[in-house]
Design a protein that fits this description.
globular, 3 helices, 60s Ribosomal Protein L30, Chain: A
Length: 124
Amino acid sequence: MVDLELPMPPSANTYWRFVGGKVLKSKKARQYIRTIGELWIVHKAQTKSKAFTGDERLKAEIQVFPPDRRKRDLDNLLKVLLDSLEAAGLFKNDEQIDEIRIRRMQICTGGKMIVSLRELIKGV
């Protein structure tokens, strides 16, 4: 089980860059991944949580607290968030996630996301 409070990710429009015919993560994306990695290290030390590095099947519950009233597509936030969590080492591959629930919450100064990852119980 992992519960993390994270900053809002960069928009999908700024997460990837096309350079010389290749798709690369932008500077903003790399910084966001570093931030998640740092928060994950602190969280592991405080809670003894472990990454999902095997063949676990996972459930993700995500609460989005937007920083303002601008319109945001939750599905775009989801792709960037999951790619970043994978890159930061919380799980081996976002393919492990079989169930996702994402909810828009009230506005919060600066914005944030609360992410809960759980292993799904087999046979249920």
